[in-house]
Sequence to fold (205 residues):
Amino acid sequence: MDGFHQLTKSQYNMAVKIRLARRGRKKMAIYVVIADARAPRDGRFIEKIGSYNPNTDPASININNDRALKWLMNGAQPTDTVKAMLSYRGVMLKKHLQVGVVKGAITQEQADEKFQSWLEGKEKAISSKVEKIQTAKESVKKAALEAETAKNQARLDAIKEREDAAKAAAEAEAKAAEAAAAPAEEAPAEGEAPAAGEEASEDKA
Fold:
């Protein structure tokens, strides 16, 4: 059976949405699901076709493009957020091209060629963005390292300056003490007895 027509009768009769749903521990995992439009946002769903992680840069979008395209061709309506994600992955473009094939406006070969050309350009743009982000991160890391190095060097310089100042003060104090002690050693104390030679000279006189 054609992959575009593998829906049950009940699924044909319900309004089907392609939307996001949270699952897992503390509902941290975000999935792209096919669900009845009447079901609660995080309630039961028909099929999980991908996942989404907005915490990475760029955001991580993993979608089964073929399954998403089949549901779109069968009338499933994506929410605005999911539509943007499908456009990012080229699924909406592929649907547009496939509708053109069905209507006979273009051939399947032309549609495939157009999509492949778009895909190559998209991959280059993504690679360029990832490279720029990586370069920016490395620049920030380098600047932070240089700032930390400069900070540490300034701290070492300040410590050395204080040590040099303390050493100079200690040397100056030692020299001052030495200079104060020198005159006291050279001058005899008042009332000190004369030397032996001087006593002999005085007796002869």
